[in-house]
Design goal:
It contains six helices and twelve strands. The chain has about 230 residues and is of the alpha+beta class.
Length: about 230
């Protein structure tokens, strides 16, 4: 850390890990055509499922359930499970789910859960915990965070409901999970009830995927959240 001459400010050089993050973010914006779509979903069914699983002794988090929903939905929208590499769109058969993780000292990493489509919710939770532990202990290797095919970033514990996630290039899609707020809506019986609504933000690379299929993917995620059934 370098102090300025008048001691009223201090300067931190944009280098090292933070510098690498800054370079990657800037390159992502400069080398792709980014478009962000926003939606809301009633996550009350997801919260109910979490309580049910907890009563059965399976303590998974909302984030793990949302990861499960994203994966299950993506299976039907594999045109978003891709990267742009050397002016080609490369589609992947395995869903390698990266998730953004904020660490101390203003560091952001994206560990990856590989072949996530083959994992149960409990296995997704264990994989996330293992990757998070390695990240916090500075034990991540390049193979632990390279190779992702789609990224999820979570600001659900803040007041930010919608935002514009920056692509984890060369991936062509990143889903932002926003804050939850309570509101009153009519149910299927026409009765008003309090529900929890979550904001979701999907950024895509418009070079590789158009707005309509991206909107369908985001809409299906919302529907899956509202009608969640574990396989």
């Amino acid at each position: 850390m370098e102090q300025s001459i008048n001691d009223s400010t201090y300067t931190v050089p944009l280098r090292g890990v933070r510098g690498a993050i800054a370079k990657k973010m800037q390159q992502s914006l400069q080398t792709s055509a980014q478009l962000t779509l926003h939606a809301e979903a009633n996550i009350s069914p997801l919260l109910h499922l979490k309580r049910q699983l907890s009563e059965q002794g399976e303590n998974v988090s909302i984030q793990d359930l949302l990861h499960y929903v994203v994966i299950e939905t993506l299976i039907k929208h594999m045109d978003l499970n891709a990267k742009v590499e050397d002016n080609n769109i490369v589609y992947y058969r395995d869903i390698n789910l990266s998730f953004a993780l904020s660490l101390d000292q203003n560091i952001l990493v994206t560990p990856t859960i590989f072949s996530a489509q083959n994992l149960t919710v409990s296995e997704l939770q264990q994989a996330r915990h293992n990757a998070t532990k390695k990240a916090k202990q500075n034990e991540l290797k390049p193979n632990d965070y390279m190779g992702g095919t789609i990224t999820v970033t979570n600001l659900g514990l803040t007041r930010v409901k919608h935002f514009t996630p920056i692509l984890n290039a060369p991936q062509i899609a990143i889903l932002g999970l926003g804050a939850t707020s309570e509101c009153v809506k009519p149910n299927a019986k026409g009765e008003f009830e309090a529900v929890k609504m979550m904001g979701l933000s999907l950024t895509i690379d418009h070079r590789a995927i158009d707005g309509s299929p991206a909107a369908n993917f985001l809409s299906d995620i919302c529907t899956h959240i509202e009608e969640i059934i574990l396989a």
